[in-house]
Amino acid sequence: MKKAAELLPRFLRRIGTVPPAQCALVGVSGGIDSVVLLDLLQRAGFPQLVVAHFHHGLRGKAADRDEQFVRELAASAGARFVCRRGQTRARAARKKESLEEAARELRRNFFARAATQHGACTVFLGHQAGDAAETLLFHLARGAGRRGLGSLQGEAPLEKSPAIIVRPLLGFTRAEITAYARARQLTWREDNSNTSRAFTRNRLRHDVLPALARAVGFDPVPALARSAEIFAAEETWMESLVGPEAESRQLDLRTLRGKPLAEQRRLLRTWLGARTATSVDFATIEAARQLALSGGPPAKLNLPRGHHLRRRAGKLFVQGAKGPK
To answer: pLDDT tens across 77-115, in order?
Structure first.
């Protein structure tokens, strides 16, 4: 394991593109990862930090104590503090989401509003290498492509906000973060729900990753996190290759048919996503590709949100309730 004292130079390299003088939001749950992130940002010389804490409304008085702990931590750091409480169970029931999905969406919405309110250009989050490994395995099990496998990116836009999300701890393992926290004599809160097998991420962390380590004979987390980083960079590059063509209102069938299979799929996914304003799954992409490759008279395919994909006169176009898009 690398020495705890080496984390700051490595951390500085990972945030090299973020100007320290600007206002920055830092998400702090009270757990070890976010407490270490706040400490490293202070040591890196960020003078305008806003500590943002989201109370999920799930863990009663323990969550109340987490909020108070983070409030006091922000005060001791000389940082502004912003907090919001959400109704995670209510949203999960209303949207038919898992608690994990509902919590993530509520938290993201809170960060977007807080960043806009405080004029923050950057939102720092404390995801580390273990989180990237768990996310990769979860999406791999679901049959995802590069977008899913590299979805936990070091930098990414924050929806509904001009700010960007930065995750500088993705290069650090849980063991390194723990060693750093102890060396710095930091205090943090333990979330008992992190040990519950009721949540998918916890089962991956406590069951799957240890089993994989035993099978391969080494800790796979750094390598999996590195793979996720590679996938994320390649996804950005590949998306740029089809971007201009995906902006077209129509796709030329002869041109589409002449492309390699992977490019056909990527172009259709991006183009259909832009036309329908929703994420398009693999089955829909394949159905659209078969429609494009087949001959015969004009044909139609149903798409999400009441849209239809039509093939006519050598072209593909999307039609909604109000006509072509």
So the answer is: 999 999 998 888 888 888 888 888 888 899 999 999 999
pTM, rounded to two decimals: 0.86
Which two structure tokens, joined as six digits, stand for 136? 């990769």
In angstroms, the CA 189 to CA 32 distance is: 7
Q: Where in the chain is the domain with CATH 3.30.465.60?
A: 247-324
Nearest to 84 by CA among 127, 25, 31: 25
Block residue for tokens 């977007």: 112
Cβ–Cβ under 8 Å, residues 150 and 224: no
Minimal CA–CA distance to 267: which of 238, 308, 298, 236? 238
Please provide the CATH number assigned to the domain covering 4-223.
3.40.50.620
Q: Residue 133's pLDDT band (boundaries 50, 70, 90)?
A: very high
Question: Is 247-324 assigned to CATH 3.40.640.10?
Answer: no
**Contact 251/316 with Cβ under 8 angstroms?**
yes
pLDDT class for 321, splitting at 50, 70, 90?
low
Q: CB burial class (10 A; 0-12, 13-18, 19+) of residue 297? A: exposed
What stretch(es) of the chain map to CATH 3.40.50.620? 4-223
Q: How would you list the strands of the sheet with 122-124, edge to edge?
A: 80-85, 49-55, 24-27, 122-124, 164-166, 155-157
